[in-house]
Amino acid sequence: MDHEETVRLQMVRRLYGRAGHTVKALDGVTASFHAGTLTAIMGPSGSGKSTLLHCAAGLDRPTDGVVVIDGTDLGSLNENGLTLLRRRRVGFVFQAFNLVSALTAEQNVALPLRLAGRAAPPSLVRAALAEVGLADRAGHRPSSLSGGEQQRVAIARALITRPAVVFADEPTGQLDTRVSHQILGMLRGLVDDHGQTMIMVTHDPVTASYADRVLFLADGRVVDEYPGDKYTGTVTAELVAARMAVLEAAPC
Amino acid sequence: MLTFATLRERWPSFAGGFVVLFLGMAMVSMSVLALASAGPRVPDRLAGTPVFVSVPMTARADGDFAPDRPWSPETVTSLRERLGAIPGVAHAVPDRTFYAQPVIGGRPVAGDRGYAWSAAMLAPYRLTAGTAPREGEAALDRSLGLAPGARVSVLTVHGPVTYTVSGTVNGPGVYLNDAEAARISSGVRAIGLVTEPGADIAAVAGAARAAAGATGVVRTGDGRSVLETREHERTRWIGMQVLTAMAVLSAFVSILVAGSTFALGVAQRRREFGLLRAVGATPRQVRRMVYGEALVVGVIATAGGVAAGAALGPVLGDVLITAGFEPPGFAVRLSPPPLAGSFAMGVLVTLAGVWSASRRAARVSPLEALREAEVDDRPMPRVRWLAGAACCLLGLAAAAGAGGSDGSDAFVTSGLVAAMGVIAGLALLSPAVVPPVARLVSWPLARGRGATGMLVRENALTAVRRTAATATPVLVTVGCAVLITGMVQTTAAAFAQVRATTIRADAVIMPDGTPGLTDAVASAAGAQASLFTGLFEPDGGALSAIGATPELLARAGDVQVVSGTLDALRSEDRVLVADWLADKRGLRPGSTLPVSFEDGTSASLTVAGVVREADADVMLSRRLLRAHDPVALADEAYVAGTPAPPGPGARVVDIPTYSAEADAQEDRLVWIATVLLVVVSTAYAGVAIVNTMVMSAAGRVRDLAVLRLSGATGRQVLGAVAAESALVVLLGTGLGLVVALPALLGMRRAFATAMRADVPLVVPWPLILGVIAVCLALAAGAAVLAARPAVRGAARS
Is the preceding omega at residue B328 within 30 degrees of 0, hence cis? Predict the structure, then answer.
């Protein structure tokens, strides 16, 4: 099964602050993310879920431990190497401020290819936009796109390099329920139809219910996993909400 | 792609950089064009003569405009014979010039040069009416409007002489018969070789070289430009200093302002750079992008600025002539090298300005894209702390040094360094210094009951970056303006004060529309004036000399006798020498000093004494000097008792007026240059202030909307915005004054001590208030204009 392991974290620790006042954002996380799956990372605020995403995606460096993306140990790369890896193998969808405001939708999608010095054939870019249903909005700037449309442009951009893994940080955090369903359905479709690997951070049980697997974090540690030892069935929003309620009630 | 898209979308944040580079490079290219055109020129009145033989010219230090030693009359005669005999030479014409200023309608006219009639063929100027002048006659410039046969009074060195106009000429000047001209001319320093038609110029020049030997130097083509007058040379030199200062100041300020503009732009776009980094831009790519944007802006702005400079160059030329920074006839010529150089400089200035901003942009971490709010809580860079502290320390050390000094010239320098150091230091530390001061100053606002006062205070305190960015240029401009203008005027006032206390006379006669006083003018008013001129040593070096009587020296009051007495000047071959000359040459009473005079004749003078605090190297009898120097004009004449009316070209003034006016011409140039610097720096400060206001407008939109929603009227919001910017400008003004005024007061005390006189502190307040008013108007106007769309938008929602 090792060859299907797209992202692996091993005993990852991340400390913030100076000596004496350290905060353990991550405290020895070990996890694997397999190809062609959608994983949701959940946890109360301050549980370290964003830090986990940043470390797994190579945006931040862990204090200890190993992060491997697509067979490459991130610890062996310098800042430039990390950037090049992100450019080739990783895609991002953030909660907001995903797009460069000066560029059109089309130009935003082409950005990663251009940064890599590769040709960005208009047909490829158009196809990527068509896939997220925005073929007719190619020439628009972010300011004239709705929030849902902006997120769809961000998804098209994340996929344009055919990355090994896409990281999403609260991708529907600023959208209403109806648009959230569209976006999440689209992400689910990418995993099912194209075998895309995807990892997303969320605090919303409904969002998490779209995932194949949910990791629960508390105080910088993985405390539970669905489906896992305790539960092996389909992940539902109710189930996740119940688990979260327990975690949030626990004394910090 | 990204570069152009960003520029299109975000042009307001580049507007400041664009404007400052445009203005800066317009100034630089104009100055550089003028500098390139400001080389010596062949004077028009000599332009028609291909070959000249001039006296050998000694190497002179920069800023030294002492004349060269003229030939002796015998040398002129023999040279003229030898040169005139060269085949192809029609005439060998000694260039004789003298003081001659026609008086028309009771007023001396503007031109004051006279020439020997034969010298008219050097241009060549021709008769437009009448005949060549004979003894007692003069040919005049036709533009004076006098017809042949008219009688005209001409001021000469001895006094007014009435001539009959023999003819008119198509060139400037008064032309006298050669023999008459020779009697009142300065020594001959050049002989022009007017050639026959078709003569071989190179052969003539070669033959002239052989004929002149070591006595003279042959000048042809552009080499003839050394024949321009020392006065024009000096004017050009002053102009060069001013133009260079303008160009350097403009380039330097452009780097600073463009740099801070780009830095502010980068600070506002941290999230965008973070996003780019997250999606795969390397730090190098981000840096290149910032450089690219700046270069596009810089290249366009520089090209525009250089074009504007080229277009305005000719206008600048006229302005420089009017201001007295370039001689008449100066014209700014357009040539590619200065323009290309200015353009290259603009690009370099842009790159230098954006250097730090691009490094900062490249250091943005990809995580910045995920930050919730756009907070700018980065501490001040350590380098800035260190540099600011170092400047302040340097300034304070200089101040301490100045305080301990006994009031000499060094004090002025120390005072200047002290104030400049503290100003630069405060500017660097402004993000740390301004907020606490603002808190202190705006304290009364918090006590009032109105909302505006509270808003103004809290806004100024929270928007540290905006407050500091606005207050700093005001601080620097007001501080420097007060310091420099105050220093110039206080110095002038100090010297005037000293003159007033040392002169022992009841009144002074000063030139009025003339370059100096004729002998007749001075004696008509019952006075006699000393003459200031030059003597030449055997090696060709020049000594300054005063021709005076013992009474004149006593009245002027500043000379102190070390050995001998002033009475030595009653005998014609005795001289007094200044102590520094005595030390340098080992002169003692009884030594001989071999010199030659302006008329070319030589003499051995006996040193009769040594003096201190003299205004010249050598002091000799006025009669002796006048006998050998037919051209020197007196600068002023002292009168004891009630003066008689002096006649045209002079006026009588009382001592206080004289004291204030004595260096008026010199002071006027310095003052124009000072005002120019103040205006230019105010313009740059204005650009910086407007830029800050426009760029920070975007960040205020939400605040202003909240204000509107909580019930503030549009007028109240704009009022608060205007009041806040006014508060910040006044804050900068206050800081500038706090730094500059003590330095000025200290300087005044030092002057008073050194000159043993009560020196008034003179600060040109109208100018300073104008600078402050401009800053206030720009800050408030720009803030309100930038905030208006936000206020309107909020009203709609």
Answer: no
For testing the chain B interface, which of A69, A85, A88, A92 should be mutated: the one with the most B CBs within 10 Å? A92
Cα distance from B280 to chain A (closest Cα, Å)? 4
DSSP symbol at A1: -
Q: Taking CA atoms, what residue in B is nearest to A84?
A: B280
Give the up-direction half-sphere exposure of residue B102: CA atoms within 13 A in the CB hemisphere: 26
Using an 8 Å Cβ cutoff, are A201 and A43 in contact?
no
For residue B9, the chain A residues in CB contact (below 8 A) are: 101-102, 141
- Chain A contacts of B284, Cβ < 8 Å? 80
C-alpha to C-alpha distances, B413 to A174, B398, B408, nearest whole angstrom: 63, 9, 10
Q: Please tell me the predicted confidence (pLDDT) of residue B343.
A: 93
User: Is some CB atom of chain B closer than 8 A to the CB atom of A13?
Assistant: no
pTM: 0.73
Which residues does B42 contact at the CB level (< 8 Å), separation at least 6? B222, B224, B225, B227, B228
DSSP A76-107: G--HHHHHHHHHHHEEEE-SS--S-TTS-HHH
| Closest to B574 in 3D by CA, of B550, B547, B532, B607 | B607
Ranges A68-82, B147-161, B261-275, B285-299: which has the least confidence: B261-275
A213, containing H or E segment: strand A213-218
Measured between alpha carbons, how far is B87 from B89 in angstroms, rounded to an integer? 6
CA distance B522 to B526: 7
CA nearest A161: which of A100, A110, A96?
Answer: A110
How does residue A250 score in pLDDT terms, banded at 50, 70 and 90? low
For B87, the 3-state DSSP assignment is coil
Hey, CA dihedral for A10, A15, A19, A23, is it positive or negative? negative
Minimum-distance CB partner of B369 among A97, A114, A141:
A97
What residues in A contact B275, CB-CB < 8 Å?
94, 97-100
ipTM: 0.80
Q: Do A97 and B279 touch (CB under 8 A)?
A: no
Q: Name the residue among A79, A100, A107 with its Cβ closest to that of B276.
A: A100
CB pair distance less than 8 Å for A102 and B283? no
pLDDT above 70 for A225: yes
Measure in Å the smallest separation between the Cα of A246 and chain B Cα atoms: 27
Q: Do A92 and B278 touch (CB under 8 A)?
A: yes
CA of B10: which chain A residue's CA is closest? A102
Structure tokens at B793: 């938008």
Judge contact between B242 and B319, C-beta under 8 A. no
Distance from CA of B250 to the nearest CA of A (A): 32
| Residue partners of B45: CB distance under 8 A and separation at least 6 | B115, B119, B122, B123, B125, B171, B172, B173
Token pair 């410039």: residue: B141
Angle between helices B270-278 and B283-323 (to 10 degrees): 140
Average pLDDT over residues B709-738: 83
Identify the CA nearest to B78 among candidates B604, B602, B600, B631.
B600
Give the HSE-up count for residue B717: Cα atoms under 13 Å, Cβ half-sphere: 26
- Beta pairing partners, B546: B532, B619
Taking CA–CA distances from A169, the nearest residue in chain B reads B370
CA pair distance A64, A75, nearest whole angstrom: 10
Torsion A19-A24-A29-A34 (CA) sign: negative
Q: Which chain A residue is nearest to residue B9, measuring alpha carbons? A: A102
B396 to chain A, closest Cα gap in Å: 37
Tokens at B723, concatenated: 């009041």
A115 to chain B, minimum CA–CA distance in Å?
A: 6
* The amino acid at B796: R
On whether any CB of chain B is under 8 Å from the CB of A107, the answer is yes
